[in-house]
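call fold target=Polysaccharide deacetylase family protein
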Amino acid sequence: MTEIPVFLYHSVSDDPPSWLAPYTVTPAVFREQLARIADNGLQLVPLRRLVAALRGGPQLPPGSAVLTFDDGYADFYWTVAPVLSDEGLPATLYVTTGALHPPGGRGTGSLLPPAPMLNWRQLGTLDALGVEIGAHSRTHVPMDTVYGKRLTDEIAGCKTVLEDVLGHEVVSFAYPHGYSGAEVRRKVAQAGYTSASAVRNAFSSPADDPLRIARLMVRADTPPQVFDDWTKRRGAPTAPFHESAATRAWRTYRRLRAALGRPVGGPPRGRGQE
């Protein structure tokens, strides 16, 4: 079978801010989902192994899956990391650098609403523990609605900041809201990233685009049966597939709103994320 589940989480918490609650699972549910992944014979592998396979390297073992987390919420440090450490599981954490802050201080600013975020010291600890740290832009702006120096700063500037703090190269990127476009992906490659994750609510595959890796978003309202189907590699499309007319129309609308100074930040209903 060629379907590769790449799971996308945001927050794992019992008490998230109201705006984040739809994108949050409780610690108990998270543990249940990890157990379901194992019970159905999936093997969690580091993202870099999937990327290597997509770029012509060694193929993944059958039944491989990947864990990813977006934004950089503080619960990753306090809740997720201990679980991953106990189970010996790999994961990639994509962080929005403007939302992180120095201990006791404030971040440089992002479009994310207020929420408890990681600080830079915690990020360094996670990196030392073996969590792969990836970039998720500076401000969490939809990448296909900005251009020129702003786009470069969101992509390359984010990479520079992370590398300066962590002391090593950062090669993984994730598009805020999953949105990219051909020019954005070109800029990501030029900045030196070897992979970038979208959303698409689909399985990845050996034929997937390493600069547009498909992921399955796990939400608070993801039914247990749907998650079980994903772990059995069914119930979702498999990338690559052609962009729908609805996705192209949604991008045009968002770009128009951004040009008018009234950007739309979140995804449309359904499978509209790129």
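return ok
The helical segments are 27-39, 47-54, 75-87, 120-128, 148-166, 182-190, 224-231, 245-259. DSSP finds eight helices and ten strands in the chain.
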